[in-house]
Design a protein that fits this description.
The protein is α/β, with parallel strands linked by helices. It has a single domain (2-195), classed as Rossmann fold (3-Layer(aba) Sandwich), CATH 3.40.50.150. It contains 6 helices and 7 strands. It has helices at residues 8-20, 48-55, 70-79, 101-104, 125-135, 150-161; strands at residues 38-42, 60-65, 87-91, 112-116, 141-147, 164-173, 187-195. A 7-stranded mixed β-sheet has the order 3-2-1-4-5-7-6, sandwiched between helices. Helix 2 (48-55) links the parallel strand 1 and strand 2 (60-65). Helix 1 (8-20) packs parallel to helix 2 (48-55) and helix 5 (125-135) crosses helix 6. It is globular, with a radius of gyration of 16 Å. Bound molecules: S-adenosylmethionine.
Length: 202
Amino acid sequence: MTGSWLWDSAIILSNYISIRADPDYNGGFGFFNLHGKTVVELGAGTGLPGLTASRLGARRVVLTDLPPLLPGLRNNVEVNGLDDVRVEVCELVWGADELPSQLNELQRGVDLVLMSDVFYDSSLMAPLAKTLKMVCHGGTVIWSASEVRQSTDECLNELTSHGFEVTELVSQPGVSTSETGHNNTNEFAIYVISPSNPIHSP
Ligand SMILES: C[S@@+](CC[C@H](N)C(=O)[O-])C[C@H]1O[C@@H](n2cnc3c(N)ncnc32)[C@H](O)[C@@H]1O
């Protein structure tokens, strides 16, 4: 299961969230205040970016993934001393017709969607786009970190063809030199993703 271990993209996205949550970031321009915000992580794996968002003040974080990954996510919430009110874990299979109740209960919608290392299989982008459209409202911000592979471009093109605009925010080398046996490019990027057509708030 690819989500059972921590991918470098998750570390890079967590660092980025921390930097943007600093009031002094870029002289205050671009400061992203997480206090009181609702956050959803898709394909969370071990959940580091979502857990980071919680530590930085998010009011509610929902970590989502396929069923086999949920026990590990719940364990990570517990060992980080976070309760299941501030950080919830639930199943969300991209492309499902309904959102889990934990997301439907977020009355003002989701403020921030986080995704790390989910751009590796272009056939998953149509279902991912469907889920993103269901999760997002007018003001939702989507940040995603990815290793830059050939498949990343294919995925982003596919996402674009399903109604999203993708802008690269940051490009940087990797954070670890782990010899995992993967064909790492050691080049990473963070993207902001937004619907091509405005989504109206509920
Ligand atoms: C490469 S792993 C990245 C995990 C984690 N975000 C990280 O960066 O460490 C991809 C993640 O996407 C999840 N995933 C893949 N297909 C999915 C689907 N159809 N619905 C929901 N999650 C999915 C996997 O279970 C896995 O946790």
